Amino acid sequence: MRNLQTLNKQQGLATVLIVLLVGVSMTAMAMGLARSVKSTQHKQTAVHAATHAQSAAWSAVHIFKEYLKTLDYDHVAAMPIDTAIPMAVTGSAQVLSAAIVSIDNSLKDSEGIRVTANIKAYDARAKATSSIQVVYQVINAVCDLCQLLDANIDLFDDTILGGDIEMKVPANTPTKVNVDGDVNALSISLIGVTYLNATGDVTLGSAVPLEEVYTNGDLLLDGAANVDKASALGTVTLKNAGTAELIYANGSLAFGGGRVGVANTLGSVDVTQWAFYGTIMAQGDVDIAAPVEKVHTRGDVILRAWADARDIASKKSITCPNSSWNLYDSLVAEIALINCPELSLNTIQGTEVNVPLMEELEPFSRTKPQIDAWMVKADANYAFEYVSGAIRVTVKNVNSIADGTYFLGSYPYDGLRDHRDYLCDAINGMGQCTSPVARTKTICQGYTDANSCFSYDNASKTWTIGGKNIAPGIVWFEGNLVLSNGEYYNTFAATGNITTAGAMKTYAPNFVGYNAVCTLAYPLSPTADFADLYPEQLCDQDLAVMNYLPLANIVVMAGGNNPFAGGVYQGGDITLAASNELFGTVLAGNNLDTGGDTIVHGYISAAANGSGSGTNDLAGKTVIDLENLPSTYRPNEVPDFDGGSCTSSCSPPTEGVDVLWSRYL
């Protein structure tokens, strides 16, 4: 009986233990499940956060690709390594940036440049970061039948830079001014120019800051001119507060003020004015009468009474002011110390002195662009000539107007309005259309219905355009051209000279784009008179896009080889005066003058093709604004004007940038 009771007690205890074990197991399972759910939630949150950051990073990959498209090919090749490039996204909680890891230029001339960049995105709301390493292939996209302008401002002939000159470009984009001739920039405010290259002498004054100057002639830094790197095949002279951080010169150096960081020369050096000079490495003799930190030369050194020279070494001799002079740290001469303190650990003669020298600088060379308005007459939508007292217009590739030759005339007042500048088959002696009787098409919107847009002065062979606007397209003139008040959407080419006057704006077709040129939706003062008058060679109506023509990058061009004067180059001077704004590339076959208030949204070239010597004169306020250029406009591409040029049809240029591969970091 007792055993049975004991057994029953044991069975009860076992049941309790089983229940406890089951309870513990269930608790463990519940806790494990809760932990699993929590872990899954954390993972989902992390994945969600990472997804936001990764999405932002891929957006940054695309943004940086578009940024590379905006850069000149050579600028991409010279981009600094390990430089962070921020990407601002307005109103976003995401912080985007790119850092250049490497630039591979080994296949630059064949396959392109490979840019490796680390793209990083931080999402502040998700508190997550994603990084992607991307290799971009940058291709030098060019038009096969084009000339490429190699500088933002490309001038031939001596050039005077005065007044206020400013260049506006996207962040981290260098700018370049090339001059074939002398450059004089004494009384000037110069902003935004990175590189100045010249074949002649360069004189800089006022507060002119430049990263680099390269000249085949002599360089003078006067006033408050400030140059990071100065290179001259001739001499370099500093006066007053002229400053250079780094100098290379095949010729001699003359320092009469200012400040120098490091100067290298294959010639002699003359330091005359009290100022601070850093390191001088020379091949010729050095004459010092001011403080110099370090002078090493293969020539003789002469130290004047006020010389304060810390480290002096000569492969020849050093001459001191007197034997008690002590404004030095070290004097070492391979041949002799003359009139110097006694020999010591810091005054040494008879020991070998090695002085490394700079490489000899090579000349900066220029290729003169061809600029010939006569070669684009056949590609013009409207070609203007003055024949036997009448304005004759040759029309080509204009929708709704048959190709052919017309006269410009007027129709009489019809009780509602006047009708000026219509294309007619025939006109009378008063310039009125006699055929056809019914009105055809006008290509002018004057200030009023009673005003014409076009006039011609036979004595000076000068055309004047003034009005609200004219029909879009490429417009050619035999003779000189004055562009007056109005807003135009054209490429203007003149065989003579071009002058702007009044408050004038002109947009090159590639700049203003499809809507204005092909649908006649002018940004300012649209008119039904121009309905359907679009230039057919520029407009793809089926795809609703512009056909790419290098000629349509040009806003104004002047000058050419006159076939009726034995091929002599005539005209080519462009004067941008008064208050004018040009959207496109400016091509002057001879010289360029600016004055008043001038803004050019594009490149400028003046080729000095005229006979005799001339001068480019940039004065007044001149702004070269290369920010926010439209993708349809390529400022450095123009036709080659050789008769087989791509002026009437062209394949679109290569896109330029591809992503080769990418990986998460």
Automatic annotation (TrEMBL):
Superkingdom assignment: Bacteria
Transmembrane segments: 12-34
Organism: Marinagarivorans cellulosilyticus
Keyword Membrane belongs to the record: yes
Keywords: Membrane, Transmembrane, Transmembrane helix
Native organism taxonomy: Bacteria, Pseudomonadati, Pseudomonadota, Gammaproteobacteria, Cellvibrionales
Protein name: DUF342 domain-containing protein
